[in-house]
Specification:
The chain has 213 residues and is mainly beta. The chain contains 1 helix and 16 strands.
Length: 213
């Protein structure tokens, strides 16, 4: 329903393409900003790392002072042969915001996709479950999450990797701290469809009356 909402109520987004063989030494930065109460921000982002390219992208999302709102972010990643793409999200959402990212990556031969999600400020609800398809031989996907749940936050995060290529690899790693009355869910799924290796690792620290599942 969130991908449909982003399609039907499209609010733009960003398109990034790294040319074949390009080695981008400095991180590319992108930002999404919400400044109006009670709205739904619906964006669709497309990122392509062409064959043999390397790039790091850092995106920061923010909505200072808002009392309510919804962010829906659809992101598609295409990591071509021998390419390396690192995508790091460091948001600072308002304490009463609902956030629904939806992401998918296609990873080809000898390519690496790394997705880092770092959320250390309170928000009302966060739900994300990115998926990577390691279709290529020797392909690699990493999902890393560092999260702080506080107040009455409800945070449901995870990652899924489908290992289709021969000798493909996948890692889903989560580190979380829950305090106050926060509720946090940490999920991970690896599906092997060929000769492959995978690892799921979740560690959490409970403070006060918080819960982690």
């Amino acid at each position: 329903k969130y991908t449909a909402q982003a399609e039907l109520n499209f609010d733009n987004g960003y398109f990034l393409r790294v040319l074949p063989g390009a080695k981008v030494t400095l991180p590319v930065q992108a930002c999404l900003f919400m400044s109006q109460d009670g709205i739904s921000q619906n964006v669709h982002n497309l990122i392509i790392a062409e064959e043999g390219s390397e790039v790091q992208i850092i995106t920061g999302c923010t909505s200072p002072g808002l009392e309510r709102g919804l962010h829906v972010g659809i992101s598609e990643f295409f990591v071509k042969k021998n390419a390396r793409l690192t995508f790091t999200i460091i948001p600072r959402w308002a304490a009463f915001l609902d956030v629904r990212p939806r992401s998918v990556a296609m990873v080809e031969d000898n390519a690496t996709f790394t997705n880092n999600y770092i959320c250390l400020n309170p928000l009302r609800t966060l739900q994300l479950y990115p998926t990577a398809y390691c279709n290529g031989e020797n392909s690699l996907a990493n999902f890393n999450s560092v999260l702080l749940g506080s107040r009455n936050s409800a945070i449901d995060v995870g990652g899924r990797i489908i290992l289709r290529g021969r000798n493909s690899r996948g890692h889903v790693v989560t580190r979380c701290v829950a305090r106050g009355r926060a509720i946090m869910y940490s999920r991970g799924e690896l599906i092997g469809e060929n000769e492959c290796r995978g690892h799921v690792d979740c560690r959490g620290l409970l403070v006060d009356d918080a819960r982690i599942f």
